[in-house]
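Hi support team,

I submitted a single chain yesterday and got back a structure, but I'm not sure I'm reading the token output correctly. Could someone confirm the output below corresponds to the sequence I sent? I've pasted both exactly as they appear in my results page.

Thanks,
R.
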Amino acid sequence: MEMWKLVFVLLSTCWPGWGIGQNTKAGVIRVEQNSVGLCSTFVQPYSSNYDCHEYSITTTDGFRLGVQRINTRSDLGQKGPVFFNHGVLSGGDTWVLNPPDQSDKSAAFILADAGYDVWIGNARTTRYSYGHENFTEQDAGSQAALAALSEGNLGDVMEKLALLAPVAYVSHAYTPIGVAAVNLHLDQVFEALGLHSFTTKTETGQHYVDLICKAANLACYEDLASAFTGINCCINNSRIGFYDKYETQATSTKNLIHLAQLYRADKFQKYDYGLVENMKRYNFITPPVYELFKVPTQNMMLAYGAMDALANLLDVERLKVELNPGYKYLFKPLYAHLDFILAYNLKEEVYDHIIEFFQN
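Hi R., thanks for writing in. Yes, this is the structure output for that exact sequence:
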């Protein structure tokens, strides 16, 4: 079995509803290119240098997840596969938003140029997945990479793991819009209303964002990214309008509810379904915590920034203490959350180090 190298930006503690190497009901299906696909939108304009293909993977519960594969035409991924996973309220396109002919090219192009076989995952609610066999909306209900590793999953298919801006604990997160939403108990409102997904791109989603921003006295739409993630140091402001065209994307409200639970509980634990359902699922009335000391760390790198409002420095230090020794880490004093995806100096500041880690 070929071993994978994984790259994650963990905006939440939610792992999309599939895992590399897991069995799926319908397997992997090559999808014909279309005008609004990730490949045709972001990679096809550079087809003389890159080869990009779209795939659909059907999960055991019937969701058709979009997966893209990118190689350079001069090197067909001889250094092995790398899987990119996005965070909450974003999609797989976060790894290709900056074009490869610019100095601030995105991570997927950087790794493809370095000779890796690049695969990009998309969660079930995002723009570049393909819905469900029978219905359109459903909770994601899946776990983070750290959670999966703490329970003995992924280790048999993973060679190296790079966690960018890693979120486990969130009790010190100070993202303005996130803290305001928790204080307004919007997670409980979503649950009571039976909302399955949330996006800022609809009239309803914008209404909730307006409500949060007004309550917190935030000028969100002047800089929505900073309201979500903190002030980023190194993003090309001239491209903000382009980024806003594609981000944010829909996410399961269960992801947002889980984040709010973790913030209030000051723990890294499983989803809280309530006393009765917790007993059915966990045999405890409260959700069990993830045992981070069980996470294999010898082939792991953590990359984090001092200015990150989501992966706050105190929370990351707590994560580092609870993990076993052996991991590598990369600390960027000026970086906030989105800098790890979109910074104009990303290659030199982050990915040259990750490639060295992968090749070591």
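A quick pointer for reading it: Residues 9-26, 135-144 have pLDDT under 50 and may be disordered. Let us know if anything else looks off.

Best,
Support desk
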